[in-house]
Input
Amino acid sequence: MAGSDRRVVITGYGAMTPLGGDVASTFDAAREGRSGIDVIRRFDPDRLPCRIAGEVDDAWIASQENGAGRRLDKFSTRGVRMMRVAVSQAARTARLGEVSERKRIGVALGSHGDHPDVEELLRIFPYWKPANGDPLQGGWDITGLKSRGAYDLMTFFRRKSDVATSVVALDFDCQGPMVSICSACAAGAQAIGESVRLIRDAKADVMVAGGCEAPITYVGFLGFVLLTALVERYETPQSASRPFDRRRNGFVMSEGAGAMILESYEHARARGADILGEVLGYGDSSDAFRITDMHPRGLGAVFAMKKAIEDARLAPDQVEYINAHGTSTPKNDSTETRAIKEVFGAHAEKLPVSSNKSMIGHTIGAAGAVEAILAVEGMRRSEILPTINYQNSDPKCDLDYVPNETRVLAHRVTLSNSFGFGGQNACLCLGGPEIA
Amino acid sequence: MNFRAIPITGVGLVTAAGRGVESAWEALCAGLSLLATDADPELAGFPPIETSRCARIDPESIGAGRRAARIMGHHTHMLLAAVHDLMADAPAPEIEEEDIAFFAGMDSVDPGKDDLIGSVRKTSGRVDLAHFFSDGMNAIPPLWPLGLLNAIGFSQSAIQYRWRGENAVFSAGAGATARAVCEAADSVGAGKARLALCAGVSGVVSARMLARAQRRGVWPQSGGLAEGAGVIRLQKPQDADPSNILGWLKGYSSVRALEKRGGLAQAIRESAQGALARAGFAPEQVDLLVIHAEGEPRADNAEAEAIRALFGDYKPWGLATKGVFGHLWGGSPALDLIMATKALSEGAAPPSPAAEGGFFRDTADGSRRDELKNALVLLQGFDGVCAAFAVGKNA
Output
């Protein structure tokens, strides 16, 4: 069942998260058990049942926008801006600019474009002309909209789900395959997995892979409020995200971006690139259960993990750490625990499992990429990031969740789980630099 | 670079012609355009636009429960209807759920005016977030945010039919659906799935869609905009019941051009050459050429240049579906691939309004019957993505 024998290594990565403006600062903050969650600043969340989120510091973004590719700024939403910064960090490490065959560099990103915000809706609302006394019947006064400049037509571009891929491809002169993935919380991991497939199939030598999301807007946030998926009971913003803890009651929405430069092992060696890690295997599956709920037995999660391990040609007991999806919702965490036990059997008892979302929150389309990057960085530093806010054990969550403190442990093989709304699951089997 | 052909064992299609392949095929053979000036008042502010819209679909007719229907819009209905019809016409063989893969290219889902206008009205025309959250937002259907996810239609299909294997949803446009077809073929070809479905879904015609098309320069330069969805089932050759085989996917290729560098024609040619090389046949063995022909002059000129360079003096039968249906964007690769397969099985080349380019054999005055063995489908997506599929009547 394994794909081709072409190995896929990681030669660069970059990230922006609520914890830091790059991978090193994010990891450093996380290893100290710091939380990036706080009261929402970007809009007034008063009266909402959840008023907290993980926001990226505007200054971190602005200070790293280097002025190159300014012509693309008009297409760049907040999410795309973070994505471009993350890619620039990754590209710098990987020395992507030195790759001469630009047609062999592709881009695969997970993202969902931007939601309309209330101000935008209010700006265009006067140009909706109801008819027949029915507010929902009528038409748009397009001429008026255009002539009065009430609506920035670039909005249509920025709303596109593939805008991140398009802009990054142009900004970094990547002329190879382009893939835009919209599978909710699994999108970032699926983008990395699809990149692995493209490199293995020799359709590209190098892929820029990752994901971005900036959902802390009125309407974006509102969506998840309406779904009652967000945490509503918490003592402080910093203690709200508590994966695997018995008192967990919802996830914390966050924003961010993560980018990896992936390339074939031969290509990386030939050009003397530093190898930071390796994507050993990829597994994906569908729960095929319900849009808003995981399969109660974690069937899809089991399939994805098994496939990733099989794809890596490893045995389950060779996996040394699991970077969990761990959203801090009651169902996800217990179901993920159950799935891990089914895949690993007795080995699960000895397996450290932790959730970066306890500190970063849930970055949706970026999560799979950001967490995979932190997992690789952890292997490089021989450290496993903790699950913070873990205080109350839950009988349904009875694994070693690396509670509250970073663990020093040399490890070479990590699984990174991502499970999306709608039931799409992705699992990456990652190797550290020693493997590569 | 010979590639083992993959049998196509089922298709489902929803277009303005109706549900199913036959209605679309009949429309194509009749050579009559389904495009008509759209009288929707919502579009009144735009220049007159020709569209071909799909009739609204009753969720119950596609097996969607009431709970699921709450988060489904027309976009999702079209995909589910195509999948429903495929499964009804050609029931799935007994295969483990995790061995069934599903890939789709989905166009953008836009918030409908019904979703948002009501809520904004209640803010009294000024930004009053407290008012919005406490009152306006109650006018938003509770599961509206999920309805906006491109992946919902895809997930609903997987839920309904218990597909638990490899999957991905790509967005947007024809390039996304081309990627879905390539992934499905790779999945079956590499033995990672025994059965794979690949689908393409258009957006829903709305003021937002029109504005996007206008900004992209696709419209009004091109022809009309269309709604529709198509799904294709690929299977491992060993598993396929010969009586269910509609045709064979023999080769596929996707190449990207940065158009500003004048590479579009070259990318179209390279994608065609890639698909033909996988299929193991020469351009002269292509009996039917399905061209993208979206009507945008620069894209069409590049396609014509690529075809001339690839085929020289040889003229296959030609087919362009957009004259009849309009541009389905994400749905168009599925439509064209399904119509190519149908043409091979029928041994008929429908008339093509785009045959005036001089590189087809003439079908302008009606269908031609011929023994068609091989077809090549060309398509173009956003951002210079060009793809080609080689389809055979036989393995």
